[in-house]
Amino acid sequence: MNFVECHEEPIHIPGYIQSFGYLIGIDAESRSIIFFSRNIADIFGIENAEQLFDSTFMDFPEIFGPVLDSDLYISLKDFTKRENETHFDKVFIGGKEYHFSAFRSGNHIFMEFEAVVKNLNKRISNKYDNFYVIDNEKELWEQLLGTLSKIVNYDRMMVYKFMMDGSGKVIAERRNDHMESYLGLHYPESDIPRQARELYLKKRKRIFSNVYAETVPIVSKTEDNIDLTFVASRGMSPVHGQYIKNSGASSSFSISIIIDDHLWGLVTCQNSEAKHVDLEDRVQAGIFTALASNAYSSFKSKNALNYQLELNEKSSQLKAEFLKHNNLFDSLADNKGKIRKLPEADGLVIISEGNTVTVGTVPERATIDTITHWALENTTESIFVSRSFLKDYGNELELDESAAGIIIYFIERSKKEMLIWFRKEFDEHIDWAGNPEKKIEVLMKDGEEKHIVSPRTSFHIFTENIKGNSRRWNSRDISAVQAVRDVILETSHKQYNAIKALNNELSKLNEELDSFSYTISHDLGTPLTVMKLNAQMLLSNFENTEKNKNKLTSIVEEIDNMAEMMHDVLQLSRAKHSEIDLERLHPLNMIQKISENAKITFDTPKTVVIIKDCPDVLADKTMLNQVFLNVINNAVKYSSHQNEPKVDIWGSEEGETVVYRISDNGIGIPEQEKHKMFKIFNRMDNAKTFKGNGVGLSIVHRIMKRIGGNVDYESNKEGTCFILTFKKP
Predict the structure, then answer these.
(1) What's the pTM value of the predicted model, to 2 decimals?
(2) SS (H, E, C) 449-473
(3) According to the model, what pLDDT value does residue 499 have?
(4) In this structure, what DSSP letter does residue 18 have?
(5) Which long-range contacts (CB under 8 A, 24 or more apart) does 659-662 make?
(6) Residue 130 has what DSSP assignment?
């Protein structure tokens, strides 16, 4: 080897495998054997393995009979067109059971064998079906580690998250008492370099059973540098092997956490003694990790949608304020506080029409002028972002701690108009697992100087104090700045273009919300289907107790609940801007039908629904049905646990309006949570034992606004009364 940086090491072509595996490579077309691991003689009893070259399995039926008779070998022709898709089977060789797996890569078919290891201590967790009801990131990953511990049970199990700079941080941990805690520690990018991360994205489960075991070389007459990327027993790099030894471990197992097709992190496990995990257990651990990963992605998507809705609302309010003024500077100056807070900045400078206005914590005026001049001379993009502005340019521009982080939006460069958001210096301390600096050893081999990376020998906490940075600007902060930009662009020409720009923006926001909703519905649909299939495969292929079957069935039910939630998100989007046709409607029949169906849906025949006067209202028929459907269903559902559940529905004319009240004797709404009642995906703490996703009342609220009405409620411990106000026809 002759490399200086870790990312230069060709870890995908080590030339050897680990001792637990046995590998044979054949030509995808001719089926002739072109390479194999030297240890295949151990299981097939071959005295002279060299005789296998250029031959096929059919030429040695006395040796490869069990393989030839396997369903997997017989079906090779059916999967060789799909690259890197692994297929599994089991065979008995010499009276011993082996896992047999195969995949095609390029012109080769790789066939791999490893002994079946019975895991007598494995027990399926009773909480893996809870992934989709957890709305806390830390709790979700701890739940995953708890589930995996029942399958693989390593001394230390961690969730390792990749940061933006390639470094990583341990964000969850489960360990035995004798193991030192790594929770909260950071690891430099060189610990898992670029090419290793690329392999983790391709091969998502990786085990090193015994780092002290001898490796097994690959033998071939014609092939050099055989790519072992997708081989389960691929040998580890010498650098990584020494790294594991230095950490005090003898075995490691990793599972990739994939979010939105990107390597988000790893579940990484370490054991002080050598430990091999059976192939089926590794596959099962991978399935549970995929379930948790998709649950996390769903959780993040819901939060992102919530934030987008809030930002859209704030943008609309800001736009309305801008349109009250005849020039841009007045619009900016009168709303400087709101503009500063949108990206959560400590300070804001507005430079427009020759004027400078500040709010919050900002540098001195002379420093602002210096930064302005630097920005005009040294940037080209319309939005410049840096969290290390003080560290990078502090000496050159004579900055103080108020300018550690900066975002500059150029309104119009030619007029030197811009907005500058500032964040103060953040006293950052990073606890590293050992000194992150890489050491290079220089060796002489065959008269040539070789440079190799020397892995760290210590993992004791090394604290690095970082100066000159602010808190990181995240994607939400950038979105907020872009929202301000859009408001400025659309309100700059107030007179003729103002109304047109406003209408265009409203249309744009609606399209974006539609697109976002459809993206969630479409993009999450595929992983949900895959998860459901995996759960159903587990249900049918594994020997399960009745308890475990119930849990697997629960997974399928939770996946169906997620699909229902995505449907409701689409309904919420459509409720905002679908076509409406207001007409005089008589709701009695609609209310009666919905009430009867609700009692059937929630299996509560003892619920008494009393329907009194139902005056006509002015509404859209489809939307009116949605309103009563959601409110009446809630009333029946949340009163269903009472001894004598009761729902009262009545309407009355009040001036120029018609008011309907739907009252129940259910669980009520806690006073401290009333402000969140109509927010999307919001569910009260006392309602989480009932099935639901927190979208229905958001739909009601949006529809009532669209048809010119209103929704409100009154609640106490005795129940809740929803108040629907319609226009009088």
Answers:
(1) 0.61
(2) EEEEEECCCCCCEEEEEECCCCCCC
(3) 45
(4) -
(5) 659/723, 659/724, 659/725, 659/726, 660/587, 660/614, 660/617, 660/723, 660/724, 660/726, 661/721, 661/722, 661/723, 661/724, 662/631, 662/632, 662/635, 662/721, 662/722, 662/724
(6) G
Per the listing, tokens 């609309």 go with 316
Is 521 in contact with 376 (CB distance < 8 Å)? no
Contacts by residues 179-185 (CB-CB < 8 Å, ≥ 24 positions apart):
179/155, 179/270, 179/272, 180/459, 182/156, 182/158, 182/433, 182/459, 183/158, 184/431, 185/431, 185/432, 185/433, 185/461
Query: Is 296 strand, coil or helix?
Result: helix
Would you state the structure tokens that stand for residue 276, as one six-digit string? 């091999």
Q: Please name the residues in contact with 38: beta carbons below 8 A apart, sequence gap of 6 or more.
A: 49, 216, 217, 218, 219
For residue 274, the one-letter residue type is A
Angle between the N-to-C axes of helices 621-639 and 696-706, in degrees from 0 to 180, rounded to the nearest 10: 150
Give the count of beta carbons closer than 10 Å to the beta carbon of residue 601.
12
Give 319's Cβ-side CA count (13 Å radius): 24
Most distant CA pair in the chain, distance: 100
Do the Cβ atoms of 305 and 520 come closer than 8 Å?
yes
- Residue 159 β-bridge partners: 172, 267
Distance CA 714, CA 722 (A): 7
Token couple for 446: 């065959």
Contact 402, 363 (CB under 8 A): yes
Distance, in Å, from the CA atom of 632 to the CA atom of 641, rounded to the nearest integer, reads 16
pLDDT of residue 437: 60
Q: Does residue 73 contact residue 31 with C-beta atoms inside 8 Å?
A: no
Given the structure tokens 């799909």, which residue do they identify?
A: 82
And the tokens for 188? 């430099």
- Across 436-445, b (16+ Cβ under 10 Å) vs e yields bebeeeeeee
What amino acid is encoded at 529 in this protein? T
How many helices and strands in the chain, by DSSP H and E? 19, 29
**Residue 522: what pLDDT?**
47
Closest CA to 151 of 232, 269, 234: 269
**SS3 state of residue 541:** helix
Q: Which of 64, 66, 76 is nearest to 103 (CA)?
A: 76
At position 125, the amino acid (one-letter code) is S
Distance, CA of 664 to CA of 657 (rounded, Å): 23
Name the token pair of 279: 């192939």
Among residues 246, 240, 242, the alpha carbon closest in space to that of 254 is found at: 240
Alpha helices (runs of H) in 428-492, residue ranges in sequence order: 475-491
Q: What is the pLDDT of residue 457?
A: 60
What is the b/e burial string over 467-492, where b = at least 16 CB atoms within 10 angstroms of the residue's CB?
A: ebbbbebeebbeebbbbbbbbbebbb
Task: Determine the Cα–Cα distance for residues 554 and 557; give it in Å rounded to an integer.
Answer: 5
Scanning 578-707, the segments in alpha helix (DSSP H) are 588-601, 621-639, 696-706
Quick count: other Cβ atoms within 10 Å of Cβ 410? 22
The residue type at 220: S
The token pair that represents 416 in the structure block: 């030197």
Strand partners, 242: none
Query: What is the number of residues in the chain?
Result: 729
Q: Which residues in the chain show pLDDT less than 50?
A: 1-4, 443-445, 495-499, 522
- C-alpha span between 471 and 404 (Å, rounded): 9
For 75-119, the three-class secondary structure string (H helix, E strand, C coil) is: CHHHHCCCECCCEEEEEEECCEEEEEEEEEECCEEEEEEEECCCC
For residue 154, what are the CA distances in angstroms to 197, 251, 457?
22, 9, 22
SS3 228: coil
Token representation of residue 195: 């090419």
Amino acid symbol at 319: K
**Phi and psi, residue 22, nearest 5°:** -135, 125
Kindly give the pairing relationship between strand 646-654 and strand 608-611.
Answer: parallel
